[in-house]
Design brief:
Elements (H helix, E strand, L loop, with lengths): L1 E4 L4 E7 L2 E4 L7 H7 L8 E5 L12 E3 L6 E6 L3 H12 L7 H12 L11 H12 L5 H7 L4 E6 L10 E4 L6 E2 L2 E7 L5 E9 L1 E2 H6 L4 H5 L5 E9 L6 H5 L2 E7 L5 E7 L7 H9 L8 E4 L24 E6 L3 E9 L10 H10 L6
Parallel strand pairs: 6-16, 8-18
Antiparallel strand pairs: 1-2, 1-5, 2-3, 3-4, 6-7, 9-12, 10-11, 10-16, 11-13, 14-15, 14-17, 17-18
Helix pairs in contact: 2-3, 2-5
């Protein structure tokens, strides 16, 4: 499932055995298709083979982010390594020059225990008390091993970008990184219908200065990419495949820099279905939601000067891939230089009305 712009506006599509089906006659949005439970191509109009569309070229249809009216939620610090890095950012107050010292002190205090701790368990409570006694407790460790997960809103409805689109880093950020993640697509009832890939772009300097700057660290123009398509669950692809997913990351800079990393969903500290339940909570998302499940990847390799670690440069090509979910590719620019987000909810409704897709 996904969205393609054939020239007149966003169109929901289903891809079955390589054939793209325009589903706009069945439902005007991806959200409406999910809520109707219409996850098969019957009623759609075949428009050609996915491979033949040459998607992304200037004179051909553009592959958009595969979601539209869903809320965009994200789970934070769901992996031990990412939890440690968030604490490091906090203790270093967003200053990359202090990160190495803090990392060593924290790893010594934990002794590797965090990887084996079940969040919310008595063992987690004991570790928390020990860290409090050592003066090393953090709000990030609370959401890493406490009973409640960190669930936040990543970006506004309709603001996400898709395959081959530029991704944006704030121009005033000096310490940042990609976050390759598996993303679940759920209906209004919180039940997942499929999965895709995402880049939860993160500004380590902003969030490190204060957790209250999370929205500035996470929600910026073009700062959230999803795609290329949502793989729908069926007898060949289930939540078990999400649990076993391996996500690869490759960053290639115009300066010749190359970084490779992997994130294994087997190491996640909270079950994805528990994260879905905590996201839904007592709330109701009438158009459904997507949930970023978090990442194991937290780059610490030096890119330039020793001790600085990794940060993006304009022109970096970020490739996120997983065998069952495909490949998501984006090129880094600043949020100021990235194409402005202009098609909001009102604009989409006007577009659908003009195309006669709201008559039903």
């Amino acid at each position: 499932m996904g969205r393609v712009d054939f020239g007149d506006g966003p169109t929901p599509v289903l891809v079955d055995r390589g054939i793209v089906h325009d589903m706009s006659a069945v439902a005007p949005t991806v959200s409406a298709l999910v809520e109707a439970g219409h996850l098969v191509p019957e009623g759609g109009r075949p428009v050609g083979e996915l491979a033949d569309l040459a998607i992304g070229a200037t004179d051909t249809p553009a592959l958009l982010s595969p979601i539209d009216l869903q809320c965009v939620k994200a789970a934070g610090v769901t992996f031990a390594v990412s939890a440690l890095e968030r604490v490091i950012e906090e203790r270093a107050r967003g200053d990359y020059r202090k990160a190495a010292e803090v990392r060593g002190r924290l790893e010594e205090a934990l002794g590797g225990n965090i990887r084996s701790v079940e969040p919310g368990s008595p063992q987690a409570a004991q570790l928390k008390q020990a860290l409090i006694d050592d003066g090393m407790w953090s709000q990030y460790l609370e959401v890493a091993i406490g009973p409640d997960a960190e669930i936040f809103t990543k970006s506004p409805v309709l603001s996400t970008v898709g395959w081959n689109a530029p991704i944006g880093i704030r121009s005033d950020s000096t310490w940042n990184n990609p976050e390759p993640e598996v993303v679940l697509l759920a209906g209004h009832d919180g039940r997942a219908v499929g999965a895709t890939l995402g880049n939860d772009v993160n500004l380590r300097d902003f969030e490190g200065r204060s957790a209250l700057l999370l929205s500035k660290a996470k929600d910026n123009n073009a700062s959230c990419s999803i795609g290329p398509l949502v793989r729908l669950f069926d007898e060949r692809f289930t939540m078990d495949d999400v649990h076993a997913a391996e996500v690869a990351l490759r960053i290639e800079g115009t300066d010749g820099y190359v970084l490779d990393g992997t994130s294994s969903m087997r190491e996640i500290s909270r079950d994805p279905e528990q994260l879905l339940a905590q996201s839904l909570s007592e709330h109701h998302y009438p158009d459904g939601f997507v949930l970023f499940l978090g990442t194991l990847f937290a780059p610490t390799q030096d890119r330039d000067e020793p001790g600085r670690g990794f940060t993006h440069k304009e022109g970096d090509v970020v490739t996120i891939s997983s065998p069952r979910l495909g490949t998501l590719v984006n090129t880094v620019t600043t949020s100021a230089a990235a194409p402005a987000w202009t098609l909001g909810i009102g604009g989409l409704m006007h577009n659908l009305a003009r195309r006669g897709l709201l008559a039903a």
